[in-house]
Amino acid sequence: MTKRLSAPEDQAGFLSDIIKNLKLTWRLLRDSRVPIWQKLIPPATLLYVISPIDFVPDAVLGLGQLDDLSIILLGIWGFIQLCPQDVVQEHLERLIAEMNPWRTVDGGRISSPEQETESPPQVIDVDYEIIDDQRPERGSEEKSTTA
Fold it and tell me: What is the rounded CA–CA span in Å between residue 112 and residue 103?
């Protein structure tokens, strides 16, 4: 029985989600519609990471760093969840449009250029003729002309 490996898109999807959430957090921090007390969440998570107080000490190799990473991701997720959802949705749509220029934001939904065409594709219907481009052998031409 063979073990299936996950697709590269799935592996890169997790990292792209983290990058997208970091960019979204930066946009929300700069937006004046987000309350100031909510803007204190990301700096507080960074303060926890650089402080010497940890749930799991950094001396435990691997687990201490995993603890810090999980706190950062949890802080970013909590910040995004607590922000006004209409502001989050607006920034998220613009961010996705910037990250993938082949997609456009259209009235609250994201569509690809293939979906933007309203009329069906044009069909060109013409008559055609198959031309046999094979020429007879030279020997057969000479036989038919001498007879």
Answer: 5
